[in-house]
Amino acid sequence: MDTQSPSIDLTIPSELGYEKIAREAVAAFARRFGFDHERIEDLKTALGEVCINAIEHGNACVPGLRVLVHCECGNDRLTVEVHDRGVKQYLAHGPSARIEQKVFGSAPLRGMGLMLISQLVDDVGFSHNPEGGNICRFSLERQQIHANGTRE
Amino acid sequence: MLEDELSVSIRERDGVSIIDLMGDVTTFAEEKINSAYAQVTDHGAKQILLNFRQNDYINSAGIAILIGVVTEVNRNGQRLAVSGLSQHFQRIFRMVGLSQYIDIYQDENEALRGFATAAA
Amino acid sequence: MTSSPNDHDQMHPERVIELRLPSRLGYEKIAMDAATSLARRMGFHEDRINALRTALAEAVTNAIEHGNAHDSAMRVLVMLTVRPDELIVSVADQGRNLLDPDKTLVTPSIEESFTKADKGGWGIWLIRELVDEVEFSTGPGGGNQVRMVIHLEK
Question: Which of A90, A108, C8, C12 could covalently link to A63 via disulfide, CB atoms 3.0 to 4.6 Å apart?
Answer without folding.
Answer: C8
